[in-house]
Amino acid sequence: MNQMFQNKAVFKFLLTAILIFVLTILQTTVIQGIEVFHVIPNLLLITVVCYSLLHGDYSALVVGVVCGFLLDINGGRVVGMNALLCTVLAYVCICVSGSLYSNNGLIAMIFVLIFSLFYELIVYIFYFAIWGQGAFFYALFCKILPAAVYNGLATILLYPLVRRLTVFNQ
Amino acid sequence: MRNRRKLHVTVISICTVILVVMGISFATRGSSSASGNVLGGVFSPVQDFFSSIGNGVSGFFGFVFDMKDFQQENLELKDQVDQLSARVRELEAYEKENERLRQMLDFKASSGEQDIVGCEIIAKDPGNWFYSFTIDKGSDDGISVNDTVMSGYGLVGRVSEVGASWAKVQTIVDTDSSVGALVTRTQEYAIVDGDLTLADKGQCTMSALVKDTSLILGDTVVTSGLGDVFPEGILIGTVAEIKSDSMGYSQYAVIDMAVDLKKIQEVMVIRNGR
User: Angle of helix A145-166 relative to helix A43-55, nearest 10 degrees?
Assistant: First the structure.
């Protein structure tokens, strides 16, 4: 019994690692070809939220940190910014997981939408607003809102995938 | 309850470590971190493969959406071919004259002096805010931070971070970018900056113009060579709009970039900049 549990844990770890690796590659390559209104969905952010809602344990924090650092290393300006945001989002998801029917695709979609708004807003404030590069309404209507909606829609495809690959019946 | 407290402590510890990493990252911007170098080495070969798929996907959608414009564009292009043929003949004459004068002055052609390496774009920024990309060559190929990056059409940006087998390029539409510029017709010096609201359209702003500037639409803007990053004479773009600032004290121009950043797949890096 114990052996079976360990095998499942290893299997889950491997599948999660492969999923994150593949999504990172897609995020920096193929996804760039399907931008809509100059925005692209953030697959790694969606994965962090979906995974954290589904599992609600420490592994979600690890996924948050890893996905955040991968976003930092592949783009952005300051290493750690995305890692910090993804960790905080994973933490909030862990806190609500287990309640609010968090194992529900629609709930995940709403969470992704709200967290994407928060995420993009923080990025805007940190990298642009505090340096005097205002354009708030442009950022809101041309970047933050479209990105959040696009992420929400992409959750429809990504949530079942994350669930299928990482959740096993005990 | 105890589990909750443990979770809080873990999250606070992780966030503290990340904040320290952010501080180090701020202090050492430009050089690549050890983790970045290792991960860059792991990801870059796979990104190389997938970026070609991404270009294919992008090209397919572009083809479908642009179909209706093709006929009109074809007619316009035929006109342009006629005009350009005449222009080419004219330029060939200038080229011969230039060659002769250079020999007389014992002047080395500037392209001969520059050490250029061709690179392929293997990955683009995963977010929606920054306009940077990763190329498939790094310090092993002699590329270093602040090397100039260009395409056959003009200036693309500069190398902002470099690893052993990859380098990150910050394009000139990025809001952190600033390039010393020169308007070729008026010989007026200015600064071309990235602007958040224009970047998606492939445009930048050109500031530091005098109030009674004699710029006109279509004026060509090249790098001035001031600032010790970009060599002089590389085409940046053309003037698309001329505007006054909100106080009316100075003017600025909107520049159409010569390079279409959404379509480029290969770039050239001028090693050691100047």
Answer: 50
pLDDT digits (tens, 9 = 90+) for A1-49: 567 667 777 888 899 999 999 999 888 888 888 888 889 999 999 999 9
Dist. CA A20–CA A63, nearest whole Å: 8
Say if CB B173 and CB B198 are below 8 A apart: yes
Q: How many CB pairs under 8 A join A and B?
A: 139
Inform me whether the C-beta atom of residue A167 falls under 8 Å from chain B C-beta atoms: no
Q: What is the extent of the structural domain holding A23?
A: 2-166
Q: What DSSP state is assigned to residue B141?
A: G
Query: What stretch of H or E contains B255?
Result: strand B251-257
Domain residue limits, chain B: 65-105, 116-274
Burial of B72 (0-12, 13-18, 19+ CB in 10 A): exposed
- State which H helix or E strand residue B159 sits in: strand B155-162
Pick from B258, B265, B250: nearest CA to B173: B258
Distance CA(A162)–CA(A155), nearest Å, equals 10
Tell me the two tokens of residue B42.
């792991």
- The ipTM estimated for the assembled molecules is 0.80
Here the tokens at position A135 are 């354009």
Beta-strand pair B203-209/B220-223: unpaired
* C-beta atoms of B126 and A27 within 8 A: yes
What CA–CA distance (Å, rounded) separates A36 from A16?
28
Interface of B with A in 189-218 (CB under 8 A): 196-197, 200
Nearest to B46 among A25, A33, A127 (CB): A25
Q: Superfamily assignment of B116-274 in CATH?
A: Rod shape-determining protein MreC, domain 2 (2.40.10.350)
pLDDT, tens digit, for every residue of B131-165?
889 999 888 888 999 899 998 888 999 998 888 88
pLDDT of residue B108: 42
Q: How many domains does chain A have?
A: 1
**Cα–Cα nearest to B170, from B116, B131, B223, B129:** B131
